[in-house]
Each structure stands twice: as C-alpha cells, then as structure tokens.
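#data-curation
PF: Archiving a pair of folding outputs for the training set. Convention for this channel: one message per protein, sequence first, structure tokens after, nothing in between. First:
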Amino acid sequence: MSKFFCISLITSSVFIFSCSDDPEDPIIPDPDEDNIIVTEAFPMLDFSRPVDMQSNGSDYLYVVEQQGIIRVFMNDPEVQTSEIFMDISSSVDNSDNEEGLLGLAFHPGFQQNGYFFVNYTTAQSTTRISRFEANVQNQLEADPASELLLIEFNQPFGNHNGGQLAFGPDGYLYISTGDGGSGGDPQGHGQNTQTLLGNILRIDVDNPADGLNYGIPSDNPFVDNQSGAREEIFAYGLRNPWRMSFDSGTGDLWVGDVGQNQFEEINIVELGGNYGWKVMEAEDCFQSSNCDQQDLIAPYFNYSHDNGDGSITGGYVYRGSITNFAGWYMYADYTSGRIWGLETGTTNPQNILLYDTNHRITTFGVDNAHELYFCSIAGKIYKFSVE
C-alpha cells in the first residue's frame, strides 16, 4: 500500500490528496473537496469569554462564561437572545487568566431531577466541584442558592486548573484537575497520588457514602489503598487537562493535556493510567536526571511548538452528519487557532490540518445531534457545516 499527501495552505483550509490501493483506508477529511465550512452558528449572539458549551437532551444549549455566568438559548441559528441560566459570579474568582467558572456537566437524569454540576475557582484559591439544581418546572432557570459542595481543594498557583466535568457511560462524574500551576510542577503533584491535583478524578454523585456528598466507585484504582493515595483518582500524571470528552460511539475518554514548552499531547485515558507528567513531557524526558519511563503511558498523539502552536484545546470524536469527519478526533490549538482532525483506532494515526483560523479557541461542544461547535475567547460560537 502506498500513500502520499500534498498539503497547501489556501486561506483557511488545507488541500489533501491521497492515493491508496487499500480499500480499508479511512476516508480522509478534506474541507475543500467536501465543501465543509466554518460559519458563525448564532450570528446574533455574543458571549463574554466562553470556556465551555454543553447540551442536556433538550433543544437548548448552555454556554459557560468564565466570570461565573451560564447562559442558555435555543439551538436555532436565528436565535436573537440568550438568557442567564445561573449567575454565581459573586462566588467565582477570575482574576487570573486561567481561573473562573471552568466546567459544566448535566446529570444524566437532569430532565427529572434538575441536577447539574460546575467546576470553579474561588477568591480563597480553591477549586470547588458543586451540584446545583434547576427549577424542575422551568429548567431554563437555576437556583444559585441550591449549591451542594462536593469537593474543594487548594490551588497553590492561579494557573493549570483543568476544569472540565463530564459524565461517563458508567454514570460517574469525571473531573479534570491541573497540576497546581506555576511552571514545571514545582510541588510535584503530577506523580503524587496523595493529592487531587494533576489527575482525572471519578466520583459517584448518586450514592454518597462515608460522610461525603459523593461516593467512590468500587473499581477506582486506589480504593482501600494503604499508602495514602486519594481514592477519587481515576488516572494521574497530567499537567493541565484542558477539555476532555467521551466518544459517544466507543465510550473512550479523550483528553487534551497542555504541555510545558515543547509539546502538546492527546491521551486516551484509562482506569489507573499514569500519563507521565512531570517525568515526561509527551514522549520526551522532562527531567533528564529522573527519567524512569516504566509504567508510564505515552500519549496517543503529540505535536510540537515548532510551528507557533502552544496550547491544546481538546475536542471531540466527531459523530455528527458530516460523513468525512466521522470517527475523527477534532481538536485545536489556542495559540495558533489551527484545527486538526486526528485519526482514531490506530497505532499510527494520521493528523490532518483542517482549518487555519485566527480564533483563540477555548472549547468545543456538541449538540444533541452530535454536531460540533467551537467557541472563541472573543465571544463567538462557530459550527462545521456543509455548504
């Protein structure tokens, strides 16, 4: 089997030509050939520093604004206004560029119980994971006074807060946490399982136990350990997991982990996995004096900062209606504005540059039809569609 690629940047796109005699080769996404364009999804709406976008089984979409407001609006390109779903800005500290209200997840039973969960930082330099309730008679309005605090932990520095929340196919709540910040993980949280920092956590919000407002899934890797490891940990060794998502087709957990100064990485995170930080940055030794790679899991894919990239924004495996995007992991780089498609399900994935934008892309989101959107820090939401 032979294959070659001819790549040419033309305005915002990449032309990709492939030749193959292997009928099993995947369809290669080609925005130009397939007339796949990026457009403003809701031209009449503007947001203030949007950092997360979620749906919940209804015809509405929810956008998280970093200063502490969640907005809701009808999923209609002609929608003219958004409403405040909840405002907790008085509780949220967003004095640093990476602090604020960072994540939102709706309970799988939201339509019945009105529960949703948020991840935010406080003026006391802590991260809070809390449950709130929406009015079951009017689920477009939440009660800021309904907060039930699940987890709170200190943040030694203002950056690297992670912040994503997501319910897995198992019904548990997954939480991404950064390594505590500064640079180079000076307090060693990435490889310290006695801290909640630098991890993907997993908790049971439906079955609280042991005096907590949540339970610990029985198969979490450190359940009943004798070494002081936190039982909430699902996986560890992460630097700043900025956006994670479950593939709705396979259930795989995809995480975009922001690197130090050389590489950005994409991980498929598994139960008990150690993803290497700060022994490794991607596949390179970060500390040459201590580079024991035994039991460390290399990223599924990584890319360097050589071309002006510098901060990954994790995305989604596409499961919408655009055939040539199907099954590709779509992600971006905040620094450069580039958007790529990454082949899934292989040991040597192809990574295709799809769009070279001028947007600072903070997050991706999907609606109930699995169509893909992304948000820019400037306040606009964009969508992939066929022209």
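PF: Second:
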Amino acid sequence: MTTRRSFLALSGGVLAAVAGCRGSKPAATPVPDVVLARGRDGVVRLTGAEARPLGAGSVLSRDGAIAYAGQLVRIDAATGAPLQEQSIGGGWVPRVVAESGDACVLARTRPADPPVGRTSSPLLVIGPDRHDELTLPGCVEPDAFTADGQGLFVLDWLPADNPDHYRVRLLSFTDGKMTPLFTRDKRPVPEDAEEQMRGRGRQAVYSRARQTLYTLYTHQPEHQHTRDLLKGTRSHVHAFVHVLHLSEQWAYCLDLPDPFGQGPAEGHALAVDGQRIAVLDTASGSIAYAGAESLAIEEVARIPAGKGVASLASGDGGRLFAADGATVHVLDGSRPAATWTLPTAARGLQLSPDKSRLYAGGDDEVVWLDTTSGSVRGRARAEGLVDVLSVK
C-alpha cells in the first residue's frame, strides 16, 4: 500500500522476459525459483523463461502466497492459477490482502502519498461469505488486517481535505467504527495522545509468525510518541520502527540511535528474523540490531559508509545481507564476513526457500547470487522492475 508503505508505490513498467541480449545485457537465464516482483501495474510472476503479470492492479499477501487482481480474482501466486473469481462491479482497486489469504480490502482510489483530500472513503471488504461495503468519514487508507480478519488497521489522514499527517486507527468490521490503538502495556490510548505521523514510512515487514508488522520511519518532523504525550515529555529521534501487534492491537515505537534518520530515507532498510530486528543506514555504515521481544537496541554493527539505496535480507543463523547500491555486505551475526558486487544497484533482496540463492532486483533485470561464494548464477530480463517481493 502507500502512506506507510510509500516505498512500495507502484512505478516502472511491466516485467517481460526476453530470450536474448538487449543492449549490454547478457542473455536471459531460466529462473530456478518462482520470483514475485512488482511492476507498474501490479505483481508479476517470474519463473523459468516466463514473466507473466498476475493482473492489472494486483496486490500480494506479505507471505507471497496469494494475490488479488481485477474484478476480482484470487490467485495462487506460486502457480499463477486462479483460485476464485467474484463479480464486484467496476471502479474498485485491490489494496491489502489478509495474511490468511482469504480476504482483501479494496478502495476506489489507487495508492498515493499523501492521498488526495476527500471527505469520505469507500472501502469494500471481500472474504469468505463477506461482501461488505463501508463508507468511512474523512480521508482513510487501508493498512493491514488484524490477525483474526475481523478488523482493519487504517491510516486516518488529517486534515481530510488537504492531508499532510495521519494517525493509525483500528476499524471494526462489526460496527464500522474507528478507534485508537492500545499501548504496549494494553492500555487504551486517549484520543489526544494518539501519535501524529508526519513523515513517510520507508519500509514495512511482517514477523515470520505474521503477528507483528514493523514499519521503518525516517525524518519525522516534530513527531511525538504516545508515551511522550502521556508523560508530557518530548522525543528528538530522527528514525524509529513502528511496531504494530496485529492480534493484541497495540503499537509501540522503537527509537533508533543517531545517526539513523539523518541521512537519505532511501539509504535505510529493515529486515526481521525470528529473534532480531535489523535496520541498515548506508550513509553512516551502521546496522542496528534490536530484540524482537524486548524491542530494545542490543548493538550497532559497522560496515563501510556509502551513498547507495539500501536493501536488506535476513537469512538463517543470524546471517544478514546488506546492500548499499550495487555492493552487498554479508554479516554473520554482527560480524562482517564478505563483500559482493552486483551488476547494478539492488532493488530489493530476497532469499530462495533453501537459502542457497540471493535474488536482487536490478536495472531492468533480476539477478541471483550463490549465497556461499557470492558469484552471479543467473540474470533474467525484467523491464521496469521496481522491487523483488517474494521467492517461492
């Protein structure tokens, strides 16, 4: 979606595989896995010698299993096979897929950051035995389903007619009302203590158990956390990770130390494994590690400072792949272990299911490296690639 996920805004062209060279690019290599990538008008499935769009305006669940497209088709993303079709009428745009894969919320508008001002926001929720159309007051954007699928976290943009900041709220499908979230200690947040998000979310990642959504924020002008508002204190951090628990419905901001957030937003990236949260800042050459349970910074590792766009992927055993443009730094735990070079600057990093291949989006291509040696094992043409989303 957009707003907190503006880094995922759709752009670029539709991917296309070609059999031979184009310009200075080498001949395409058959892709050994199923790579799901983002193009201008939705998700594209790339495997073997084929690159096939999953449908206009298609969106993918964050585990990469299910996509929704068109009017309205539910798709098995790994095989590309349609699972279910449902007539919903024209004008609806798929926006967010539930992690169960059996529900989707649609809006009348495409993602934009900030969205166009409006006084009401129609949403359509499609799921098992569900076809609910809601009209919410104000300028409201869908963000993520609750874990049980009975509600939706939304971004309530203010002022509605000329939005420049927002608050994260919970929409109940039962009564159609929007309410504030809870604090980390399960207390209701008073309406006058809700956080006002004025910056833009750089990246959002689910925990592996898909119970928690982590969103990286940088450059928050005059942002004050709920805990500061409740205590009457002030925060002066430049970057933090917004932690949203999808079943317990609480939110917490994990502050990142200086100099995180002072460099370019595109130089920051986020990755989460079962134990730790990792945040990369290429401008300072810093990688901050925090405990996924403690939500506290444990250590900061160092790599050479750079100027490239950041991408981050977390492997097994604490292994981390940190891209600074076309340079990939490999860390074992927090210890630098190797440095690899990509043909072009990375546009997203994803590991194959067996962790033997590291896929990187590139300049109109997808590249994959051997995760033992770092050598390039294949390149496939991918016109207008924006990001590599998932590998199956």
